[in-house]
Design brief:
The two termini are 25 Å apart. Helices cover 74% and strands 0% of the residues. The chain is mainly α and 101 residues long. The chain has one domain.
């Protein structure tokens, strides 16, 4: 039981960039799912995993649609504003951390 915790503790002590990168990427995915859930509750259709077209309507343009209608709904713009920096920053920190291993 202590062995997994020792491995996590070792990673946190010796290379915290990997852990921080995973946390930032996870936070970005949480924000993306939050945006999609709010849009789905309004009736916007999201893509499915079988018909994924990320550049088309209702693909990765869902954050832009969120920003267009957020004033009418009274939503905060911060989930979209934090989505892309946390995703790109998380990937960058993760890659740097993995090269340092």
């Amino acid at each position: 039981m202590d062995e997994p915790y020792q491995a996590i503790r070792y990673m946190v002590v010796h290379d915290p960039a990997v852990i921080l990168g995973f946390l930032l990427v996870g936070f970005a995915s949480f924000l993306f799912m939050h945006i999609q859930l709010k849009m789905l509750r309004l009736g916007y259709k999201s893509y499915t995993f079988f018909r994924m077209n990320p550049t088309g309507k209702n693909g990765w343009d869902m954050p832009a649609e969120y920003l267009r209608i957020r004033d009418k709904q009274g939503w905060s713009p911060w989930p979209v504003y934090l989505l892309w920096p946390s995703l790109f920053g998380g990937v960058l920190v993760l890659v740097v951390g993995l090269f340092r291993l």
